[in-house]
Amino acid sequence: MCTNCHSAMNKTAGLALDTYAQADYANGNLLSRWTNAVKRMKEGTMPPSGTKATTLQVQIAEAWIAQGMVEFPPMVTPTPTPTGDPFQPVCTTREPAGSSLKRLTRTEYINSVTDLFGSQTATANAAALNLLPNDPPSLKFDEMQAEINSTLANRYDTLAETLGAYIRQTPAARTALHSCFSQAVVTCPADFVRDFGRRVYRRPLTTTEQSEFMVLAAQATTLEEKAEIVVSALLQSPHFLYKMHNAGTSLGNSLYRLTAYELAAKLSYLLWNTTPDSQLLDAAASGALLTDAGFKTQVDRLLANIPRMSAVLNSFYSQWLRTNNVVGGAYSPWISNGINTAVLAPAMVKELRDFMDFTVLGSPGKFSDLFLSPISFVPSSQLASIYEIPLPATPNGQITFTPAYRKGLLGKAAIIATGTDSTHPV
Questions:
Q1: CA distance 228 to 127
Q2: What is the pLDDT of residues 146-170, one digit of tens each?
Q3: What is the enclosing helix (H) or strand (E) of 138?
């Protein structure tokens, strides 16, 4: 369509798009021309004759540009080797990005409660946990700011009281929180406040905070009731509901150096989507986390937990690629061609998840493999029929596609499908 006017023959506005190829991405100027052309198509200013580019035409152009950028990355002029002292830092100033106050997302809250109380307690209170509303996406990703409305505040209160009551009523759940409950020692309330408080707050409680919780516990008579009050109060505290990172040394201009415990929390929620475990908190307590070696040890440990990393990655790319739209989509009979889409849609999403897990976690892959790898995983005969191949005989459905158009993410059915009769090439 564009080359009707912008060709070597017509060269309207001095632009001959038919003389450029994807390999010309090595020329940054040509890359800017391609992206500007797509921008004009989206705005409806090109073509100017009243024949507006369709959504599909724009999407195809964007996909072509994206593939070109992966296969033929723009050339970057090398930075000249600095002269003088080789150990002198090139950058003399640093400007850390700002960080607003954020509360736990729904997933972070449920994961944190599960890890604090154990999976049995979380399962027994699943109905209460499911009352938490889904997070409204910010720029397509779950990212919660500080605001809490009255409805959400009531849900948090109800959850805290429900879990507190469950701990009071369930001896095994209390013992799982602290060994002192099975021993009924005199110091149990103080020990529980100190130790469980550190886990909930993701840092040690201050002397004042410990005293305040002991005052609350003193209102109860039995050890079970004391546990209930303390648990309910801890879970309603902003120090649990919010991720606070302002307790470190002030560097001026509203900047703070992260404490070891704040760094532990950031690492844990980034890589595991949950509260720090005991090993991470202990590394913060000893100061090891603030050393290069100690930091690397903990990062390697967190990354080595494939199930947790897989869950975090799945959450990320399901939001990034909007795969939730695929499951439950409404397909016309002539599109599904007799295939049970209730079975096909989950298979498409599973293929994408298995591919991402393999590329990111299961192989020494590169970023370009996400777009260029011919490897995939076909888990069902319904999906195999879409690809017009026999169901792979391998246990995990692994297959190497030979057609070039099935490379990487852009060739996956879950990316092309939208949950409707239309397709989505990007």
A1: 19
A2: 567 788 889 999 999 999 999 999 9
A3: strand 137-138
